[in-house]
Amino acid sequence: MKTAVYPGSFDPVTNGHLDIIHRGAQVCERLIVAVLHNSQKNPLFTVEERKDFIRQETKDLANVEVDSFDGLLAHYVNQVKADAIIRGLRAISDFEYELKFASMMRELAPDVETLFMMTKNEYSFLSSGIVKEVAQHNGDIHRLVSPRVYKAIMKKYGY
């Protein structure tokens, strides 16, 4: 596989995301981590901040690029000529949504495969939303995100 896209909001990027990025980079020649700009959401971090976090945390991976997009993922993967999309699965509850997502992608971009990667057990509960909720109440998130992201989250919440 030449080019794969790992899309997400990454608000913030967690250790679970980073695990998928590292493993995804091993199975393709080029991995594009594509940060979604969703104007309907009120993110904690800007798209540029999220891209910078990912760049800093993956600078040792020569085949990883960080980009952003808005609109349909199908249009983006066609634009960058991707062969595949990588999606992380945490639990069986993710599968129903991801199956629908993959089916729609097959309809919109039939030449692009969707590959599912299971998270490591230690990250099976982890999501950006959970990280933000715990951090908002000054809970301990230092094992869930990188030290750089941890400091930025604590600063955003005034701790």
Automatic annotation (TrEMBL):
- Keyword match Magnesium: yes
Q: In which pathway does it act?
A: Cofactor biosynthesis; coenzyme A biosynthesis; CoA from (R)-pantothenate: step 4/5
Q: Indicate which residues the UniProt annotation says bind ATP.
A: 9-10, 17, 88-90, 98, 123-129
One of the Pfam families matching this protein, by short name: CTP_transf_like
**BP term (GO), one:** coenzyme A biosynthetic process
Q: Any idea where this protein resides?
A: Cytoplasm
Key words, A-Z: ATP-binding, Coenzyme A biosynthesis, Cytoplasm, Magnesium, Nucleotide-binding, Nucleotidyltransferase, Transferase
Checking Gene3D superfamilies in the record gives: HUPs (3.40.50.620)
Cofactor(s) needed: Mg(2+)
Which GO molecular-function terms appear in the entry? ATP binding; pantetheine-phosphate adenylyltransferase activity
Q: Cite the InterPro entries for this sequence.
A: Cyt_trans-like, PPAT, Rossmann-like_a/b/a_fold
Catalytic reactions on record? (R)-4'-phosphopantetheine + ATP + H(+) = 3'-dephospho-CoA + diphosphate
UniProt: substrate binding residues = 9, 41, 73, 87
Give the EC class as a word: transferase
Q: Where is this site: Transition state stabilizer?
A: 17
Q: Which GO terms describe its cellular component?
A: cytoplasm
Keyword presence, Membrane = no
What's its EC?
2.7.7.3
Role description: Reversibly transfers an adenylyl group from ATP to 4'-phosphopantetheine, yielding dephospho-CoA (dPCoA) and pyrophosphate.
Q: What family is it from?
A: Belongs to the bacterial CoaD family.
State how it assembles.
Answer: Homohexamer.
Protein name in the entry:
Phosphopantetheine adenylyltransferase
